[in-house]
Amino acid sequence: MLKIYGKVEDGTKAEIMGWVLSIREQKTLAFIIIVDNRKQVQLVVNDIKLLNHVRQNAVISASGTVKKTTQAPGGFEIHVNELRLISKVKKEPPFNIMAKELPSIDLRLDNRALDLRRPYNLDLFNIRATLIRSMREHLYSNGFLEVNTPKIIASASEGGAALFPLMYYDKQAFLAQSPQLYKEELTMPFEKVFEIGPIFRAEPSRTLKHLSESVSLDVEAAFFTNEDLMNLIEGLVKDLLSDIWESSSDLLMRIKAPKLNLPERFNRFTYGKIIDWLSENGRKINFGDDLGQKDLELFGSHINDFYFITEWPIKLKPFYIQPKDSEVTLSFDLMYRELELSSGGERVHDPSILRKNLKGAGLPLKSFRHHLIPYYYGMPPHGGFGMGVERFLMTVTGADNIREVSLYPRDVRRLTP
Ligand code: AMO
Prior knowledge:
CATH architecture of the largest domain: 2-Layer Sandwich
CATH superfamily of the largest domain: Bira Bifunctional Protein, Domain 2
Strand order of the largest sheet: 7-11-12-17-16-15-14-13
Helix content: 25-40%
Bound molecules: aspartyl-adenosine-5'-monophosphate
Low-confidence stretches: none
Radius of gyration: 26 Å
Mean pLDDT: 95
Shape: elongated
Order of helices and strands: EEEEEEHHHEEEEHEEHHEHHEEEHHEH
Structural class: alpha+beta
Largest sheet: 8 strands, mixed
């Protein structure tokens, strides 16, 4: 908490409370960097006796006068005449939050609140907040309604993907793997909806890009074609990048975020074209087989920016995706190099086709009884996509492990803190 009693100019009185990030002692004076509401402020202590038990991580309050200087973060420092220790450091911390060499990710995640105090993380999670705000603003300004759908559900929304079961009173329930079915239904009353919320995936894989609990931006719109959806997400990505670089370029530079290649128009490659290219480049894939990590790395490094993979085979897509013909679907994945950021497409809105697809996927019709109801009462043609917030943040910040961009990551091994 910082209070400056007047303009930021030499001699103005100021008070501050915050966390000590670092102390640099010289013979007769000391410089303290204090974190105030996620920003760094420099204190100059001319009487080092005032320091007493003050050390890194302690909470202090100080009062003094402002002095403008280009040497300090924010362009000013506070020359302290009173300093008070509010909360002492009571134990040796497991790592130094200012150390150049990072401790292991496990040690940092075990002590996450302390780790989040590292300047890198303060910047990163400020960028995340800006990103989320910008997602909201973009969708609100395009006429979308923000919604929240249940996270405790009675049956799989995607089929296939593994679910976390739980007991709901005396019944079996699951954590929602996606708001898919709800967002589709909501296009009937509301036409265009979006949700930013958690998705739960019982992912047995221990990879650098999968979490068991992730945050997803889910968008769904009546009357949008596959092409409309790709244009929407392309515009969204461009707006998000320009918003965060406009409002947070200093933070992005400090964390050494990469300058992303942003093409005029994102290329669209059909799945068929990609498997042809891969087979010409030494990786044989049969039509209908999924693209693996190695395939995406090879193709992604060749493209080197944002692009879409379209027309996925019917057999690789869930029951709700609209077929284009007897083999492929009206679907897309948005990629940045080898990383999948989003997937989506047009949906089936004819209840008889949906019933047929559910049966074909081996899913019990009984479990989808409620979901099928709106399809008989004016379900519009519709489509949408889901975009992983952490995946997008990895791309923006250059983080190579998805755990770095989640406040409290959950994976096969980690359920705490
Ligand atoms: P999908 O399962 O492809 O599609 O997920 C959409 C996007 O969510 C992110 N994502 C994940 N991120 C981190 N860890 C995970 N375990 C994880 N799983 C998914 C990815 C992915 O592209 N219902 C459809 C979307 C739609 O069609 O609207 C769906 O969930 O960035």
